[in-house]
Amino acid sequence: VQLQASGGGSVQAGGSLRLSCAASSVIPNMGWFRQAPGKEREFVAAISWGGSSTYYSDSVKGRFTVSRNNAKNMVSLQMNSLKPDDTAVYYCAAGYPKYGSGWSSTKDYDYWGRGTLVTVSS
Q1: How do 111-112 and 74-79 pair as beta strands?
Q2: Chain centre distance of CA 1
Q3: Degrees (nearest 5) of the Cα angle 93, 95, 99?
Q4: What does the alpha-carbon distance between residue 104 and residue 99 come to, in Å, rounded to a whole number?
Q5: Which of 3, 44, 49, 56: disulfide with 61, CB 3.0–4.6 Å?
Q6: In this predicted model, which residue has the larger pLDDT, 18 or 27?
Q7: Which residues of 30-55 are buried (b: 16+ CB within 10 A; e: fewer)?
């Protein structure tokens, strides 16, 4: 399975960006993580197979929206009201449900894209 994230760029605080992730095949659980310089990779958002369940970190809840289009093997992350703290490399991840697994750990995902850089200036 290959994942290709796109849509990153530079934006001023308060602006918006939309990230997309193209997958070579449909995987049930899809998520977004980010990693800022000098920090560990952290969970951002995730979405279930049918899109009925979505999950967000507290830091992005109410500002970011995750969605998916299984017909196109794509997952998107709409990011609004961006803040300088949102600056990071954003990674798309995909995984199969496992017994005892959740949504917000890197261990919950089996495949990772290469990442796309988002820079938010103040």
Answers
A1: unpaired
A2: 17
A3: 140
A4: 15
A5: 56
A6: 18
A7: bbbbbeeeeeebebbbbbeeeeeeeb
